[in-house]
User: What shape does this take?
Amino acid sequence: MNMLKSAGRFLLIVPLALALPLGAEPQHCGTCEKPRLVFGVIADVHIGGKPDAPETLEKTLRLLDKRGVDAVLCAGDIAHSGHIGEIEKFAAAWNRVFPGGRGGDGRKVELMISTGNHDVGGWGGRWNGFSEERMLAERFDYKDNFQKTWERLFGRKWELIWRREVKGYTFIGSQWSSLKPPIEEYFRDHAVGLRGSKPFFYCQHAH
Assistant: This one.
Protein backbone atom coordinates (compact mmCIF):
# COMPACT_ATOMS: atom_id res chain seq x y z
CA MET A 1 0.00 0.00 0.00
CA ASN A 2 2.90 2.39 0.68
CA MET A 3 4.17 1.85 -2.88
CA LEU A 4 0.79 2.70 -4.35
CA LYS A 5 0.46 5.80 -2.20
CA SER A 6 3.94 7.10 -2.93
CA ALA A 7 3.51 6.58 -6.67
CA GLY A 8 0.66 9.08 -6.56
CA ARG A 9 -1.33 6.99 -9.02
CA PHE A 10 -3.65 4.87 -6.91
CA LEU A 11 -5.71 5.24 -3.79
CA LEU A 12 -6.45 2.00 -1.97
CA ILE A 13 -9.14 2.22 0.69
CA VAL A 14 -9.31 -0.90 2.84
CA PRO A 15 -12.03 -1.12 5.49
CA LEU A 16 -10.78 -4.16 7.42
CA ALA A 17 -13.66 -6.47 8.29
CA LEU A 18 -16.01 -3.67 7.24
CA ALA A 19 -14.92 -1.32 9.99
CA LEU A 20 -11.40 0.11 9.87
CA PRO A 21 -10.40 2.48 7.04
CA LEU A 22 -6.69 1.99 6.44
CA GLY A 23 -6.25 4.10 3.32
CA ALA A 24 -5.43 7.77 2.98
CA GLU A 25 -6.47 10.53 0.64
CA PRO A 26 -3.96 11.69 -2.00
CA GLN A 27 -1.47 14.28 -0.82
CA HIS A 28 -2.43 17.84 -1.76
CA CYS A 29 0.95 19.06 -2.91
CA GLY A 30 0.19 20.95 -6.10
CA THR A 31 2.18 18.55 -8.26
CA CYS A 32 0.48 15.31 -7.19
CA GLU A 33 -1.62 13.57 -9.81
CA LYS A 34 -5.23 12.66 -9.24
CA PRO A 35 -5.36 8.89 -8.59
CA ARG A 36 -5.93 6.94 -11.78
CA LEU A 37 -7.75 4.21 -9.90
CA VAL A 38 -9.61 4.18 -6.59
CA PHE A 39 -11.00 0.96 -5.17
CA GLY A 40 -12.20 -0.33 -1.82
CA VAL A 41 -11.53 -3.75 -0.35
CA ILE A 42 -13.86 -5.49 2.10
CA ALA A 43 -13.81 -9.01 3.50
CA ASP A 44 -15.61 -11.32 5.92
CA VAL A 45 -18.98 -9.61 5.91
CA HIS A 46 -20.57 -12.80 7.35
CA ILE A 47 -24.20 -11.85 6.83
CA GLY A 48 -26.16 -14.30 8.95
CA GLY A 49 -23.38 -14.71 11.48
CA LYS A 50 -23.25 -11.12 12.76
CA PRO A 51 -26.57 -9.46 13.68
CA ASP A 52 -25.46 -6.02 12.50
CA ALA A 53 -23.62 -7.22 9.37
CA PRO A 54 -26.12 -5.86 6.80
CA GLU A 55 -26.16 -2.40 8.43
CA THR A 56 -22.37 -2.32 8.77
CA LEU A 57 -22.01 -3.38 5.14
CA GLU A 58 -24.28 -0.60 3.92
CA LYS A 59 -22.46 2.03 6.00
CA THR A 60 -19.14 0.82 4.60
CA LEU A 61 -20.41 0.94 1.02
CA ARG A 62 -21.70 4.47 1.55
CA LEU A 63 -18.30 5.48 2.91
CA LEU A 64 -16.63 4.03 -0.18
CA ASP A 65 -19.11 5.85 -2.42
CA LYS A 66 -18.20 9.15 -0.74
CA ARG A 67 -14.52 8.34 -1.37
CA GLY A 68 -15.29 8.09 -5.08
CA VAL A 69 -14.29 4.47 -5.64
CA ASP A 70 -14.20 3.03 -9.14
CA ALA A 71 -14.63 -0.51 -7.82
CA VAL A 72 -15.31 -2.54 -4.71
CA LEU A 73 -13.45 -5.81 -4.25
CA CYS A 74 -14.85 -8.31 -1.75
CA ALA A 75 -12.39 -10.96 -0.63
CA GLY A 76 -14.85 -13.59 0.50
CA ASP A 77 -17.30 -14.73 3.14
CA ILE A 78 -20.08 -12.36 2.20
CA ALA A 79 -22.41 -14.97 3.72
CA HIS A 80 -21.94 -16.95 6.90
CA SER A 81 -23.60 -20.27 6.18
CA GLY A 82 -23.77 -20.48 2.40
CA HIS A 83 -27.45 -19.58 2.52
CA ILE A 84 -28.85 -17.91 -0.61
CA GLY A 85 -30.88 -15.57 1.60
CA GLU A 86 -27.66 -14.24 3.12
CA ILE A 87 -26.21 -13.50 -0.31
CA GLU A 88 -29.47 -11.79 -1.25
CA LYS A 89 -29.00 -9.38 1.66
CA PHE A 90 -25.51 -8.53 0.43
CA ALA A 91 -26.86 -7.82 -3.06
CA ALA A 92 -29.70 -5.72 -1.63
CA ALA A 93 -27.27 -3.51 0.29
CA TRP A 94 -25.10 -3.11 -2.82
CA ASN A 95 -28.08 -2.13 -4.97
CA ARG A 96 -29.29 0.44 -2.44
CA VAL A 97 -25.92 2.19 -2.42
CA PHE A 98 -24.88 1.57 -6.04
CA PRO A 99 -28.12 1.16 -8.03
CA GLY A 100 -27.38 -0.05 -11.51
CA GLY A 101 -23.70 -0.20 -10.58
CA ARG A 102 -23.48 3.59 -10.31
CA GLY A 103 -22.18 5.79 -7.52
CA GLY A 104 -23.98 8.80 -6.10
CA ASP A 105 -22.40 11.06 -8.71
CA GLY A 106 -23.29 8.72 -11.58
CA ARG A 107 -19.85 7.16 -12.05
CA LYS A 108 -19.62 3.46 -12.88
CA VAL A 109 -18.60 1.30 -9.91
CA GLU A 110 -17.57 -2.31 -10.50
CA LEU A 111 -18.38 -5.02 -7.92
CA MET A 112 -15.94 -7.93 -7.80
CA ILE A 113 -16.37 -10.88 -5.44
CA SER A 114 -14.13 -13.81 -4.61
CA THR A 115 -16.23 -16.16 -2.51
CA GLY A 116 -14.90 -17.80 0.65
CA ASN A 117 -15.42 -21.03 2.51
CA HIS A 118 -18.46 -19.71 4.40
CA ASP A 119 -20.14 -18.78 1.13
CA VAL A 120 -20.00 -22.33 -0.19
CA GLY A 121 -20.37 -24.40 2.98
CA GLY A 122 -23.01 -25.04 5.64
CA TRP A 123 -21.35 -23.27 8.56
CA GLY A 124 -22.64 -22.01 11.86
CA GLY A 125 -25.54 -24.38 12.50
CA ARG A 126 -27.92 -22.36 10.34
CA TRP A 127 -29.23 -25.51 8.73
CA ASN A 128 -30.55 -27.11 11.92
CA GLY A 129 -34.23 -27.96 11.54
CA PHE A 130 -34.25 -27.59 7.75
CA SER A 131 -35.74 -30.41 5.72
CA GLU A 132 -33.28 -31.94 3.28
CA GLU A 133 -35.29 -30.57 0.35
CA ARG A 134 -35.25 -27.02 1.71
CA MET A 135 -31.57 -27.23 2.66
CA LEU A 136 -30.55 -28.28 -0.82
CA ALA A 137 -32.73 -25.63 -2.47
CA GLU A 138 -31.31 -22.82 -0.37
CA ARG A 139 -27.65 -23.83 -0.32
CA PHE A 140 -25.65 -21.60 -2.63
CA ASP A 141 -23.34 -24.45 -3.68
CA TYR A 142 -26.04 -26.99 -4.59
CA LYS A 143 -26.34 -28.03 -8.25
CA ASP A 144 -26.86 -24.96 -10.47
CA ASN A 145 -27.61 -22.54 -7.62
CA PHE A 146 -24.21 -20.94 -8.28
CA GLN A 147 -25.26 -19.86 -11.76
CA LYS A 148 -28.90 -19.02 -11.01
CA THR A 149 -28.13 -16.95 -7.92
CA TRP A 150 -25.23 -15.01 -9.43
CA GLU A 151 -27.10 -14.07 -12.60
CA ARG A 152 -30.24 -13.11 -10.67
CA LEU A 153 -28.51 -11.02 -8.00
CA PHE A 154 -25.44 -9.65 -9.75
CA GLY A 155 -26.43 -9.78 -13.43
CA ARG A 156 -23.41 -11.77 -14.58
CA LYS A 157 -22.36 -15.36 -15.12
CA TRP A 158 -20.79 -17.36 -12.33
CA GLU A 159 -17.10 -17.92 -13.08
CA LEU A 160 -14.67 -19.97 -11.00
CA ILE A 161 -11.92 -17.60 -12.10
CA TRP A 162 -12.99 -14.13 -13.19
CA ARG A 163 -11.25 -11.21 -14.84
CA ARG A 164 -12.43 -7.60 -14.94
CA GLU A 165 -11.00 -4.43 -16.46
CA VAL A 166 -11.48 -1.23 -14.45
CA LYS A 167 -10.23 2.02 -16.01
CA GLY A 168 -7.62 0.08 -17.95
CA TYR A 169 -6.39 -2.01 -15.01
CA THR A 170 -6.86 -5.76 -14.67
CA PHE A 171 -8.40 -7.50 -11.69
CA ILE A 172 -8.39 -11.30 -11.42
CA GLY A 173 -10.09 -13.34 -8.72
CA SER A 174 -10.84 -16.94 -7.92
CA GLN A 175 -13.86 -18.39 -6.18
CA TRP A 176 -13.29 -20.75 -3.28
CA SER A 177 -13.94 -23.83 -5.43
CA SER A 178 -11.37 -22.85 -8.04
CA LEU A 179 -8.43 -23.58 -5.76
CA LYS A 180 -8.77 -27.16 -7.03
CA PRO A 181 -7.16 -27.07 -9.62
CA PRO A 182 -4.93 -24.28 -8.29
CA ILE A 183 -4.95 -20.77 -9.64
CA GLU A 184 -1.34 -21.18 -10.74
CA GLU A 185 -2.55 -23.00 -13.85
CA TYR A 186 -4.59 -19.96 -14.88
CA PHE A 187 -1.61 -17.65 -14.51
CA ARG A 188 0.64 -19.97 -16.50
CA ASP A 189 -1.89 -19.96 -19.34
CA HIS A 190 -2.36 -16.17 -19.30
CA ALA A 191 1.13 -14.97 -18.37
CA VAL A 192 1.88 -13.36 -21.73
CA GLY A 193 -1.28 -11.28 -21.71
CA LEU A 194 -0.55 -9.99 -18.21
CA ARG A 195 2.88 -8.65 -19.05
CA GLY A 196 3.33 -4.93 -19.36
CA SER A 197 4.06 -1.78 -17.41
CA LYS A 198 0.76 -1.68 -15.52
CA PRO A 199 0.18 -3.73 -12.37
CA PHE A 200 -2.67 -6.19 -12.12
CA PHE A 201 -4.55 -7.13 -8.96
CA TYR A 202 -5.39 -10.64 -7.76
CA CYS A 203 -7.87 -11.65 -5.07
CA GLN A 204 -8.80 -14.89 -3.31
CA HIS A 205 -10.20 -15.65 0.13
CA ALA A 206 -7.67 -18.27 1.22
CA HIS A 207 -4.54 -16.93 2.88
